[in-house]
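Objective 1.3, modelling of assemblies. Example input:
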Amino acid sequence: MLDVLIVDDSAAIRKILQRVLRQTEIPMGDFLEAGDGREALEVLKTHSVRLILSDINMPNMDGLEFLKNLKSNESWAKIPVIMVSTEGSQAKVLEAVELGAAGYVKKPFTAEQLKEKLTALY
Amino acid sequence: MTDTIEVKLISTADIIAAIKASTEDLFSTMLSMEITSSETLAPQAVVSAPASGIISLIGLAGSWAGTGSLACTGDFACKLSSQFLMAEYPEVNEDVLDAVAEFTNMIIGNVKNALEEKVGEMGLSTPTVIFGRDFQTRSARTHEWVGVRFTSGEHEMFVQMCLAPNPDPGAVKGIRPGYQFPALG
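Predicted structure (tokens):
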């Protein structure tokens, strides 16, 4: 079972991502949510997850800073992270990949686009 | 010798084209709804919007700075949110306001992505959503708003922007400031 952490400052997007993940053939476990990178790091201290979906533009700690923190921690470094963001410039995508993102989905997205990224991972 | 700062230009046509492409993309990918751009709004000092309803504002900062807005009636916001979240929303509530904020983020965010190809990187703020009656929105700057009136069935939606070269040459993008939506009474 795949426990997933969804990090986005929009509750609407967190709901939609959960719905799309449930539609995949991958057996899903618990869904955990955080509104920004700082909250996400707190969630990770008390829960173990096997996949993270994260926005980039968020208050307090953005997605790239969160990714940097995650990858510098030995216990969390191997958790695959898919960035789901409106930020679509090549520079931002490259930065995310260089920091260790396993995939990048640009908003707005179709369910199929997200499922494709997940299928490539699992 | 005098130092000169090169100001890269964005035309009204660039903004209009980016608004149309970005809005149509959102409607086709995440809402599965038809939307038509029915009118390009002439530059004006105030935001065009229904007299009552929802307006969502998002700031942009970088070499160019300004504001993007999305405005529609409460009924249309409920219809869009129902489609987006696959749940029934008969009246405006926190979920509807959050969904409208996200529509604004995606539409103006992708307009920003398109314009960045011309003027370089810009940062985007957290959207602020206002729901009420008989309000008017005006930019404190003297620059004018340009935008597009969209129609979907009997509903209308306005997407507009007020952008100008940033007078602060040291302006850089930053992360989003936190903002909590006010609770509806």
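The longest helix of chain B spans residues 94-119.
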